[in-house]
């Protein structure tokens, strides 16, 4: 419910906060609590995937710190890894490559925000049971990325300014599967002190968010096993000059912040 008051002569609609419930972000293991196995990125001696991991594309069970820009120039799979990012660090794809995360965490270090994971033209991203936390632009998809080879399922996003970004004009944002992802919006972005702006940020894009799922009445997962959830945001999805098709998503306990009209 809303009540109306005035602020400097402007009408302001203020939500009723009585029934508002906060959902705190999941906890992450801080980078200072683990031993870093490998430092990678443009400010280290290993600026690319091919230089950091020349003999394998499967990286399992290690703690990584990204500094500067780390370029994914070959296929790479992170399984059960902690991938930490220093302040303003980023991971970007180059060429026809697949970036895959399985039960891995892509998170901030020393309570400072990192920049993004950018999927460029011909790149693809597949995350299953992963965490993306503490980024400015989260997963940033660019025009020409291989949507037909990309999916997001069973992931958690929190403390990101934007968890998913699509800001390059003409980008077609879609996935083969987009199910059971949870976006949290109550806890501040590291180092900024401000809450996340939105779960998904679209500017001049064509986007399909969510996958239609048909399941049997006796399916043990049912609705809860497939729905994407946005919690405690002021705006779950922001869409500017974009086309958005949305399905299988719910928005709950959105932040009751005043809106000036």
Could you explain the architecture of this structure?
The chain is mostly beta strands and 261 residues long. It has 1 helix and 28 strands. The protein has one helix at residues 49-52; strands at 2-7, 10-15, 38-40, 58-60, 63-66, 69-72, 76-79, 82-85, 90-93, 97-102, 105-108, 116-119, 123-128, 131-133, 139-141, 151-153, 156-158, 162-166, 172-173, 177-179, 182-184, 198-203, 206-209, 228-231, 235-240, 243-246, 249-252, 259-260. It has a 9-stranded parallel sheet, with no helix packed on it. A hairpin with a 2-residue loop joins strand 1 (2-7) and strand 2 (10-15). The chain is globular and about 50 Å long.
Q: Could you tell me the strand content as a percent range?
A: 35-45%
Query: In DSSP terms, counting alpha (H) and pi (I) runs of 4 or more, how many helices?
Result: 1
Global structural class: mainly beta
Q: What's the mean pLDDT score?
A: 91
| Biggest sheet record | 9 strands, parallel
What radius of gyration results from the CA coordinates? 19 Å
What's the helix-strand series?
EEEHEEEEEEEEEEEEEEEEEEEEEEEEE
**Share of residues in helices:** under 10%
Shape: globular
Condensed summary:
By secondary structure, the chain is mainly beta. The chain has one helix at residues 49-52; strands at residues 2-7, 10-15, 38-40, 58-60, 63-66, 69-72, 76-79, 82-85, 90-93, 97-102, 105-108, 116-119, 123-128, 131-133, 139-141, 151-153, 156-158, 162-166, 172-173, 177-179, 182-184, 198-203, 206-209, 228-231, 235-240, 243-246, 249-252, 259-260.
């Amino acid at each position: 419910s809303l009540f109306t008051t005035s602020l400097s002569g402007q009408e302001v609609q203020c939500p009723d906060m009585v029934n508002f419930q906060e959902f705190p972000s999941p906890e992450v293991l801080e980078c200072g609590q683990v031993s870093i196995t490998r430092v990678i990125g443009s400010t280290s001696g290993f600026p690319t995937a091919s230089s950091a991991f020349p003999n394998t594309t499967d990286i399992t069970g290690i703690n990584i710190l990204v500094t500067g820009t780390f370029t994914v120039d070959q296929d790479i799979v992170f399984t059960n890894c902690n991938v930490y990012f220093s302040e303003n660090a980023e991971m970007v794809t180059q060429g026809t490559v697949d970036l895959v995360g399985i039960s891995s965490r892509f998170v901030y270090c020393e309570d400072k925000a990192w920049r993004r994971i950018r999927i460029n033209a011909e790149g693809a991203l597949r995350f299953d049971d992963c965490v993306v936390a503490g980024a400015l632009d989260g997963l940033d998809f660019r025009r020409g990325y291989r949507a037909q080879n990309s999916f997001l399922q069973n992931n958690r996003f929190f403390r990101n300014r934007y968890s998913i970004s699509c800001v390059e004009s003409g980008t077609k944002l879609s996935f083969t599967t987009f199910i059971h992802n949870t976006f949290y919006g109550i806890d501040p972005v590291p180092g900024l002190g401000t809450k996340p702006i939105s779960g998904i940020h679209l500017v001049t894009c064509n986007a399909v968010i969510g996958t239609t799922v048909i399941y049997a009445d006796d399916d043990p997962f049912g609705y809860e096993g497939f729905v994407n959830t946005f919690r405690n945001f002021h705006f779950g999805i922001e869409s500017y000059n974009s086309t958005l098709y949305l399905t299988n998503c719910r928005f709950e306990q959105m932040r009751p912040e005043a809106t000036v009209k």
